[in-house]
Amino acid sequence: MATKHEQIIDYIDQLPIGEKISVRQIAKALNVSEGTAYRAIKDAENKGYVSTIERVGTIRIERKKKENIEKLTYAEVVNIVEGQVLGGRSGLHKTLNKFVIGAMKLEAMMRYTGAGNLLIVGNRTKAHEYALNAGAAVLITGGFDTDDDVKKLADELQLPIISTSYDTFTVAAMINRAIYDQLIKKEIVLVEDILTPVTDTIFLKTMDKVSKWHEYNRETLHSRYPVVDENMKVQGMVTSKDVIGSESDQLIEKIMTKSPMTVSGQTSVASSAHMMVWEGIELLPVTDSNNRLLGIISRQDVLKALQMIQRQPQVGETIDDIVTSQITLIKGKMKNEDAYRCEVTPQMTNHLGTISYGVFTTIVTEAANRVLRSFKKGDLVVENMTIYFLKPVQIDSMLEINPRVLEVGRKFGKVDVEVFNEGVLVGKAMMMCQLIDRH
Which residue ranges does the record assign to the CBS domain (predicted)? Predict the structure, then answer.
């Protein structure tokens, strides 16, 4: 039987898009405590079913698909610009396809403004009215209000009219940044993108007998299965090691490995790969927030996804992308040894204008990665790293990075990295890495 938390999530999922919900209303409708209702609404917000806006409340919104992630809802815009909703609240769940900055004459402005747009404009009531009639929402900058007639029109057309204290330039930059962040998120492959769903997953129940494992093993030739209870909650994992020497009529729950490591659908594939390598795991159950089985991912699934990620063009650059794109290969001082050069750009610095600790870590990690790849093809996971940051490095400096492989085995590598600025040693690092074979 579903828990109260699960019942609330299912209830919210069934609500029509745009519906306003409250803790009190959920508590009354499902006869639960307000604390339980609040926790479930927060969980629904994390899952992307609802959006909470200050001074407005919580609204049921459409959950975004991965390919649509870079499109913002008007509700998200309100939160980004710390805005106040003046009218058209029932349209906050809608998605905008582009925003238009109204820094031109009214006729020209209207030529660029259409349905599904967001017009960013100052204290120009006529423009507010025209935009709404054209099917666009309005974002008023500078903290200005608008006429009551315009607010009434926004309510009728279910198109939000929002006011923010920020100026037009700042607002455009904030929205652009939010879209850019979404683009980066779109490129990150999550477990939910590659999992084998529960409908296609073979699992065992705690009250099944060992003979059931043998039956599945003959049918599928697989030897690892998640074990669930009657509520589909993961209780353990069972493998051929557990089964060896067990009687056929013995219960699975007596021999399984209890409380196995699990991941959620929102875990990144890269993070799952690290867990699998470190723990020597071949198969991970994927669970929801209540530990119910959603599916499984195997080591093969993860490696395939990692290779696909490397072939994909990056749409939004992260700081790591900016840093690694600056690193170029040069000839090392020692024969047959590679070295790298990297210029310290403004994005790589801290508030003092010197290279940030995080960027320095990225530089030495990337250098170690590249030099180890020349020894062994595949991916690596940094197991531990010791960094000595000896001297500050200022903006526009040219760094020389000298990685040296001390030891390399079938599954690990040890690298020493020295970083110089104008011939002076400014930092050192010692790294131990696990190597993931791609085969």
Answer: 195-254, 256-314
